[in-house]
Amino acid sequence: MRRNEFKLPYMGIDKQDEYSLLYGLQGEFSVVIKITNPVEQYSASSDAYDEFHNLFLNVVKIIGEGHYVQKHDVFLKAAYESPESTEYLQQKYNDHFEGRPYILLETYLSITRKVKKGAFYVYNAKALLEFKQSIGKVMGVLASGNARPIALDEAQVNLFVKRLLAMDFSSKNVVLNNMKPTDTEIRIGDRYVRNISLINIDTIDLPSSISTHAELKDKESLKGFPVDLFSFLFKVPNFDFIVFNQVIEIVGQMTTLNKLELKKRRHSGIPDPANLICVKDIEQLLEAVAKDNQLLVNCHFNIMLAADKEHIQKAANFIESSLFQFGITPSQNAYNQLELFRCVLPGNATEIAVYDWFLTTAEAALCFFFKEALAVSEESKFQIRFTDRQGVPIVMDPADLPMANRRITNRNKFVLGPSGTGKSFFMNAVIEQYMMYDIDLVIVDTGDSYSGLSDYFKGKYITYTEQKPITMNPFAISEEEYNIEKKNFLGTLVGLLWKGADGNISQVERDVIAHVIDSYYEHHFHFKEFPGLSEAQLSAIRDRIITSFRDSAFEDNDQEYIRLYNLYLRSKEELEEEEGIIEISQEVLNVNQIREQMVRYNEIIENRYEAAVAKQTRIATYRWNLNKITELNFNSFYEFAIRKIPQIILEDEIPFDIKEFTYVLKKFYKGGEFDRILNERSDQSLFTERFIVFEIDSIKEHKVLFPIVTLIIMDVFLQKMRYRSKFRKVLIIEEAWKAIASPLMASYLVYLYKTVRKFWGEAIVVTQELGDIIGNAVVKDSIINNSDTVCLLDQVKFKDNFKEIAALLSISEVERRKIFTINQLENKDNRGKFSEVYIRRGSVGEVYGVEVSLSQYLTYTTEKPEKLAIAVYNYAFGSYQDALDHFISDLKDTRLSLDDFVAFINKKGKPHRFSLDHLIKTNNHEETIVHQL
């Protein structure tokens, strides 16, 4: 067999400042740049494809004539390698994905300075300087276009070339193999490589017009969704590597135009149909160049496919049929496989034969450039994992990174998903990963959705029952804790107790309650002994005594009596200075006679005054001591309020229904129906517990208790938020939020949402009811407007009403398109059961997959039979982790479906492989175990 040496088309690499120049055999030199395509796959933005097009059009214009622009998009298969974790469920997650195949995409851009063919190479310092300056400009333009350019150094260029030669982009050590080219493919080791040239120069089967992107048409829900023209490359079956080689040669404009004019005249001279079509094509091209000042370029496009021998034909057929669907018929005469393979090498566009070039405008040529990039993990210290659209784990930061780059201004979240869309699984997945960090979680649940995680993390699971209600004493605080926020909370609570969640409270009523709360704590914190009657009170008593005193001589003339009494009170000197006689009732009385009479009257008045002062002092002292508050709770507040409010009404002459207030609030006072709720202290360990679930499903229909208990729980969270400064704080409110989404609670909700931001916290509201959010001003103003992150599960059920949802959540048309790709892509092969979720941080969102291991599924499940079966194992083995391990082991051992195995265990009432000795050893309480069994 004849053997030929494969000679590389390079002289070597020369380091020039920050660039490593790759020199070709004819003296041409290139810079190789690694970039990221700026358009993320499934971005849903047609504008993004246009922006990419404009970005590379600018690159071509900067480089100018006499250059090649070569772009490599390398698609390679890889197997997921999971990290190690010391945490049980996280390691199960890693094991679930270990070895899962997925596609990686790497993109490279090579810019080559041509030399005149056949000319002897002469070093040109000016040309080299101009080239480096152009590359600098290109790097700047690419960076501004979010392409993240990195110029490769010598070692990286060498490795890139070797990987192309070996068709191996995954091995750490690249090994070159012999090549055996044929008319249809090249064999490299055990791998077969086929080059598919997009353009057949003999027929040029291309669409008459082309866009920067295509639109999906195969599914009604995805119709009109923008994708890359070559997005089908991600779906090629059974390939190992694909290299999409895209090359543009920026030709001399005047020379090429002159050639076209000459060609047009030649074809015009022979007026047959084929020539007339050719003339028309040339005229359209010349018109576009003249009208829009477009650049003329030669272009070449080649898809190089690598696969096993048994799969390569099927993969090639898929590519060719996909090209045909948008009007491209690839060349069937690509016998020059080795020649096409060599042209894929970076900086080697000089070897592209004339019959593999196609003349068009730069704008048209760039439409064929691949524009998409795959989603990548975010670099952050606060990470949680979902899957990308392929089904492999990807890391994202739901809070800190978007806060740091100003994508969001708060960490609060709003979660909406109809029943059955995986909402609980999504929240369980978030919570489990949140617990990997220093986070305090308070969950208000109405559906037993988090009992599994609570058992796993040994959290506090508090269920409301009539025998053991959830009790708090929000009135019991220290003087330091009493501030405007606590005052507002208590005002909201009292208003809620009185008016109910749907009631309205007037400004006067609100002010009266605030006054009473202030007075209540003032009396408690600063109580003193009764200071005595005030000067105003004493003066009022004296005036009352004088007015009430009557003497027969003056009983018909009160005013005259008072005037005489006042005269008497004057000093003796003043009376002696009076001249003449005072006229009374048309009689003249001597002042000395008045003095004698007044002395007698004064003695009587003083005695009565002293008695009245003593009596009023006793009454006031009694009332003062009544207001002495020995214990802070609702009982003492109620007693204080029903005494204080009548005083306020009397003094300020304001309307206030004290009878209604007293009657309605009485049910929470001692002896009342709900007297325990606001008078018994809560479990003090709650303030240091990291995982707390309040399960209040039993009262979700109770119009009185539901909002009150929910509000009280929120206050527990606020207290934890203030005094657990080293921990993040997260409050999750499931459907319970409906209990407090009323005008009465609006100001408190706004306060809660704005306060959590200051204390490293976040509030998450979760709902499934569309009717509860549309048209609810409180939801919009208090919750949604203060939640910069929106999480949407499958919205197909809401599709008819989605315009209203989009308006409420300020969702743009582009984001709407993303949302309706949820669970609609053909990405379910070789995956476990999963659902997808759209997470918008700020104005832009992404779709992620929620896929978990069987261990996590069993921990998250909300199915009652599955919960009961796990509980059987948990009780038997005394550890949630051991329970999961034994449950899954027994499930595999029986070879039953999960549903059948669950039914079997629940019927049996004990683990499948049951060992009493093991139970006794594990629990160390033989008598108790035997008795319970």
Automatic annotation (TrEMBL):
Residues 384-526, 618-888 form the TraG P-loop domain. This is Small nuclear ribonucleoprotein (SnRNP)-like protein. Keywords: Ribonucleoprotein. The keyword ATP-binding does not apply. GO terms for cellular component: ribonucleoprotein complex. It comes from Mucilaginibacter lappiensis. PANTHER family: CONJUGATIVE TRANSFER: ASSEMBLY, PTHR38467.
